[in-house]
Amino acid sequence: MTRILLVEDDDSIVANLSAFLQTEGFAVTAVDGQQAAISVLSKEKFDLLLLDISLPDGNGFAVCAAAKVKADLPVIFLTASGDEYSVVAGFEMGADDYVSKPFRPRELVSRIKSVLRRSGASQPLLELGNLRVDTVRGAVFKQGEQIFLSALEYRLLLVFLNNKGVVLSRTALLEEIWDSSGEFVNDNTLTVYIKRLREKIEDDPQNPTLIQTVRGIGYKVGN
Q: Is 139 contained in some domain?
């Protein structure tokens, strides 16, 4: 079961959101402050962090830093509506997404699932043909030998592996990876990154069998 640490000091949000997330199959641990969050992160393992920026004994940025140092934990910030500075600062700290308050619980669940897919946290081991991805270590192996991908290539590979058999449009791919890298990604550079990824994982990059092109639509991995 996916474990979520919720860091929020509003009791009503904690109660309602925790109950809703549990009905969606998530295990939720809730704390109300910066020090409590950092303490529990040092003792327990989680799959994702839901983090309010404004906390009674500090702020969420310090908690985000602790989460990223310990285990590169996926982080979604909960922010006050229209607080652009906090959003930008959050992404610079390594946050994976943000949701403005007030938010709709189902939208938040959708964001959570998307971040988990991008990070690979939904499954510890992913396989495709002669490829094996250890998402805990962030390591990729081809025929037993480790290969090295850039951060964006790795994110792109995870998106494909977590959507086996699904035809992904170029727009969908851009939406999945745009906030996961410090590099600017548009439709043209997406083509470049797919080419680079194929060169590293395909036996014959000119005739790819793992990342298949679906002409006029996008790309697909697996059946």
A: no
176 located within any domain: yes
For residues 31 and 114, state if they share a domain: yes
Give yes or no for a cis peptide into 124 (omega within 30° of 0): no
pTM more than 0.70: no
| Token pair of 12 as six digits | 């009503």
The strand pairing partners of 7, in sequence order, are: 31, 51
Q: Give the number of other Cβ atoms within 10 Å of residue 29's Cβ.
A: 14
> Do 22 and 99 fall within a single domain?
yes
CA distance 187 to 169: 11
SS3 assignment, position 17: helix
Whether residues 159 and 80 fall in one domain: no
Give yes or no for a contact between 99 and 107, defined as CB atoms under 8 angstroms apart.
yes
Structural domains counted in the chain:
2
Task: Tokens for 82, please give them.
Answer: 């229209």
What phi and psi, each to the nearest 5 degrees, are found at residue 181? -145, 150
Q: Domain of 59?
A: 3-119
Mean pLDDT by 10 residues, the chain (223 residues): 88 90 88 91 90 86 84 84 68 81 86 79 73 82 92 86 84 72 69 93 93 92 77
On whether the CB atoms of residues 162 and 123 are closer than 8 A, the answer is yes
Q: What angle do CA 193, 199, 200 make, to 5 degrees?
A: 95
Indicate whether 69 belongs to any domain.
yes
Helix axes of 151-161 and 187-201: crossing angle, nearest 10 degrees: 80
Burial of 117 (0-12, 13-18, 19+ CB in 10 A): middle
